[in-house]
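Summary: Need help interpreting a holo structure output

Steps to reproduce:
1. Submit the protein chain below together with the SMILES for zinc ion.
2. Request a joint structure prediction with the ligand placed.
3. Inspect the structure token block that comes back.

Expected: a single structure record containing both the chain and the bound molecule.
Actual: see attached output.

Input attached:
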Amino acid sequence: MKIREDYARDCGESPSYLDPRDSAFPFRSPPPFRKTGGWQSFGCEGYSEGVRWLWVLVASVGWGQTFEATPAAVRQGETVRVRSAGQATAARMMGRTVPLYPQTEGGRLGLMPVAAGTQPGSYPLEFLAEGGTVLRASTITVRDARFRTQNVVLEKAILDLQPAPGEMETVAAFQKAVSETRRWVEPLARPVPGCMVSPYGVRRLHNGKPTGEYHRGIDQRAAAGQPVRAVAAGEVKIVRKFNLHGGTVAIDHGQGLESIYLHLSRFATTEGALVKKGDVIGYAGSTGRSTAPHLHWSLYVHGVPVNPVQWVPLKPCVQAKRPASLVP
Ligand SMILES: [Zn+2]
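--- attached output ---
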């Protein structure tokens, strides 16, 4: 009981907030939403109004340690935030290990991606000390996201497009690179205001033939020439005209979070530039493998494409009868 009271006091919470029926702390009820900023203030008072985050908290306290993984239940393609107050410097789940980076407000934070193709089920998430000792384990439940199938009708000329020399390698290298300086804060910005034409995760068919691919980001409605804005601060890593991706800008936001914007008609930034959240980085278009002007953008967490809608609220376009786009 002492631990519970200490936790409540340290975190400025009413002890009644914790379920007194629990004899061992580690779990507590989802807190009410508070308008106190974003995930960056994750500590004691850091519960945000996060739109679709289920604030089911897996937390355990003991001997000066705190371990948190939120949300404890995710859908395929979502991201788990892993926080440690103390000795844990990495987290491991499904064979993937991600660093927990020291945060300016204290403690450590890491992002654990759950790939779109993950089998639904329960998975252990382990908190690791320097050297790999397992300090604690939680369970993360991965639910079926029920991704739909989408057929995209493509003209032969677009279907036959081949990547430019080095195109796929450049994008793959960007996905792999992880910089340690965190430049992103919550909430992320929408790159364009338009509704969502095509969601993340849909299984793609080309002219009725399965491609084995899924949509690795989202498509938002955008007119040709409409400004496209950085979802968060970061360092611009790619500003290139590619064959398949079209006009491409890619930004490293640090500590495992990256974004990429495709089919742009023009650029408004350069490789190596440091941009702020909301800066115009280019203009929407229909370059590359695209059938109409729109914005495709993706978020990567440690190289894994994750569902941006978990990070940025976006409404689907009503009665979008036909997909306006396609990207690799
Ligand atoms: Zn797309």
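--- end attachment ---

Reviewer comment: Residues 1-63 have pLDDT under 50 and may be disordered. Residues 167-176 form the longest helix (10 residues).
Status: needs-info
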